[in-house]
């Protein structure tokens, strides 16, 4: 592992994808050995991920992987809906006509990507659309906040993409672009909230699939965490 930034990226990717299974204690010794690093820089990374909401910590158990919890994911979606309603309003006021032309072209290219493409690629395209909007606000805090919440719901949205929501999502993206082109600032926030929002029961269904994916995947991979009692609880675009 070349350096702290690379170590952070590697461990965060594991946390985002729930390679650390929900509620399990992270075996620091085994993880350090697997990544070929010492425990001191690894612990610094784990502390940072705890601050960012990917891990928790117990006095007696050390670092614990976050739960895949429906109510928490629902709260993150609710936060994202409010955040992106503000983003799209600011983008409507500040984006140049040339930027909106490029945004439309991006959505049109994205629609040409086959529905049966890898879910990771489909999600990358979806996240890119929303980040383009955030950058058009000229406000870096919007971009950072969106990147943060996206990371925490990435796994659930990846499951969503596998379940075939993508065609619906792409159609809504184009309607948002059309409203931006009209500079229809009054309708855009509600469009975005509707685009993002999910009911708790929908989230619970996606999480149920997520648990199956995590534990079926683990049967074919070497474990990087030590088992512990897990709390399974029951997260849209």
TrEMBL record:
GO molecular function, one term: DNA binding
InterPro entries attached to this UniProt entry: GntR_C, TF_FadR/GntR_C, Tscrpt_reg_HTH_GntR, WH-like_DNA-bd_sf, WH_DNA-bd_sf
UniProt domain HTH gntR-type: residue ranges: 1-68
Keyword DNA-binding: yes
Pfam families reported for this sequence: FCD (PF07729), GntR (PF00392)
Keywords in alphabetical order: DNA-binding, Transcription, Transcription regulation
PANTHER family reported for this sequence: GNTR FAMILY REGULATORY PROTEIN, TRANSCRIPTIONAL REGULATOR, GNTR FAMILY
Protein known as: HTH-type transcriptional repressor RspR
Native source species: Achromobacter pulmonis
Taxonomic classification: Bacteria, Pseudomonadati, Pseudomonadota, Betaproteobacteria, Burkholderiales
